[in-house]
Amino acid sequence: MSIRSTTIRQYTQPHQFEPLLPQTELEALAARSRPVVEMALALRKALSPATLASLRELVRAMNSYYSNTIEGQGTHPANIARALRAEFSEQAGIAQRQRIALAHIAAERKLEARIAIDGLQEGAILRPEFLLTAHRMLYGQLAEADRRTEDGHVVAPGELRREDVAVGRHQPPAHAALPAFLTRMDEVYGRVTGLDPVLYAVASAHHRAAWVHPFRDGNGRACRLQTHCALYPLSQGLWSVNRGLARDRETYYAMLDHADMVRQGDLDGRGNLSERALREWCEYFIDVCADQVRFLAQMFELEGLKGRIADLVHLRGRKDKAYDESLVMPLYVTASAGPITRGQFQRMTGMPERTARRALARLLKDGLLVSESDKAPVSFNFPLDTLNILLPNLYPEAATTNLEF
């Protein structure tokens, strides 16, 4: 998002961005959240842990794609996949966007590892310290040239801005007052506990962090990284709120802007900003989460997944004899209960030994199965060129023609 330097005096005291959480109609927000929580917990049991791990890697790449696309710096999913194999475009602009995508993926992975190792819960992740860490991890992996913005500014990893700025119609707090605003966020969001408030607390922190605009650049990416991580104890990285935000970018920005509204009279809370507008932002955010979890839950209903595996094998079998219909059941079992040994997979096909071995080799080559070594068990995987059949509409951009590389 473009910004301009200016002299700003308006926001210098933390009370000016109260309330930081909705204060009324909390039960309605909790009731709106509970189905999301229930679906998210159920999704974590839908498939084998190994298959969910594969999905998690796919979602991580999606998060990078959608967050960078929101910022106008996205690159085709195929280019992200190439970058993960250390294959970079000869075109400087595309190669830069590939490196930015990789930095996002690496930062997300490191932040998730920190959550797991330290046992962090939502309140700790919503602290400003985590937001600064997210910004530092993201931009600290990029060379100076890749951190240079269009106006020539070089993004400093994890560094608070040192100037006053305007962002569109919004004037964030004066830079000298940032520590006071962040301290207040820490006092409120660091105390969040329990499942009922988690979604509206994450939504509120996302907006207020964007409103404070603590960094000179990179605020949107850092906020979305923190938001993903704050949802991680619930989501386990299996669904992407970035996907929902990016698929209607205009509404996302409009709702953020709407929640900037000042209080509209005595019935609109007691803070300087509108409690009603903040609550409406929270409702929007919860609905985005609900759409994403519901979509994934439908995709992983076992009979439906089995049918789509059968469709994939049938379609590929038209051109490749290695894709025999006898592969459907072992693939399905690997997805739902795997990993399984190579011998088990081959026996389940019912094919002659040599034919089964060739079929298994082809599935490994095509990425539908993955394995840690030549003799290790095989696990189910979701390569990009299968998503339009296995998980239709999850990542539709991956099925489009790549005109960039």
Description of the structure:
The two termini are 25 Å apart. The chain is mostly helical and 405 residues long. It has a two-stranded antiparallel ribbon with strand order 1-2. The protein has a two-stranded antiparallel sheet with strand order 3-4. Strand 3 and strand 4 (378-380) form a beta hairpin. Helix 2 crosses helix 4, helix 14 (328-337) packs antiparallel against helix 15 and helix 15 (342-349) packs across helix 16. Helices cover 57% and strands 2% of the residues. The radius of gyration is 23 Å and the shape is globular. The chain contains 17 helices and 4 strands. It folds into 2 domains: 4-299, Fic-like fold (Orthogonal Bundle), CATH 1.10.3290; 302-396, Arc Repressor Mutant, subunit A (Orthogonal Bundle).
Structure characteristics:
Arc Repressor Mutant, subunit A, 405 residues, mainly alpha, disordered N terminus, two-stranded antiparallel ribbon, Fic-like fold, 17 helices, 2 domains
Brief write-up:
The chain is mostly helical and 405 residues long. It has helices spanning 26-43, 49-70, 77-84, 92-118, 122-125, 128-139, 178-189, 198-212, 219-235, 241-247, 249-258, 275-299, 302-317, 328-337, 342-349, 353-366, 387-390; strands at residues 4-5, 165-166, 369-371, 378-380. It has two domains: 4-299, Fido-like domain (Fic-like fold); 302-396, Arc Repressor Mutant, subunit A.
